[in-house]
Amino acid sequence: MGTSVKIVLRKKRKNNETYPLAIRITKDRKTSFIYTGQYIHEKDWDCDNERVKKSHPNSTRLNHYLLAKKVEANNQSLELEATQPDVTVKAVKRKSNLVRMVPFLPRLTFFWNACARIKNTTSYKQKSHELNTSKNS
């Protein structure tokens, strides 16, 4: 069965009355969302055509951006389905370049620096050697 890719306006409103735009990927009735980082007012969204209405000041640019992201997600989905027929929604989401992954080493460094700040010297001393080893490799 194919994968459906749509642009949707999520109903999680921010304080300034705007709503996030997301790309919804559905396969086998399982859904995953990739947030675009763009927020608009509900009155500026055309849900039938999956487009920003012309009442929005940057509607043309935003529509081009959203269309490019939708095409990118759709291409990744088709590419994965061609190589693996039993691909999952999460695999499509991971494969797409739309998801910003934070590398492991900076997160690990942040954790160990936090341990050092709170004077948790036992954990910090035990793990600092591992950190230095992984940085060098």
Structure description:
It is a single chain. The chain has 137 residues and is α+β, with helices and mostly antiparallel strands. The protein folds into two domains: 92 residues, no CATH class; 33 residues. Helices cover 45% and strands 22% of the residues. It has four helices and five strands, in the order E-E-E-E-E-H-H-H-H. It has a three-stranded antiparallel β-sheet, covered by helices on one side. Strands 4-5 form a two-stranded antiparallel sheet. The termini are far apart. The mean pLDDT is 78.
Topology:
Layout lengths: L3 E6 L9 E9 L2 E11 L4 E2 L4 E2 L6 H25 L5 H7 L8 H14 L3 H16 L1
Antiparallel strand pairs: 1-2, 2-3, 4-5
The sequence of SSEs as H and E is EEEEEHHHH
Strand composition percent: 15-25%
Number of helices: 4
Supply the number of structural domains: 2
Biggest pleated sheet: 3 strands, antiparallel
In the predicted model, the low-confidence regions spanning at least 5 consecutive residues are: none
Helix percent band:
40-55%
Alpha carbon gyration radius: 21 Å
Mean pLDDT: 78
Separation of the first and last Cα atoms: 43 Å
State the strand order across the main sheet. Answer: 1-2-3
Give the tally of β-strands: 5
Q: Output the structural class.
A: alpha+beta
- The rough form would be described as flat
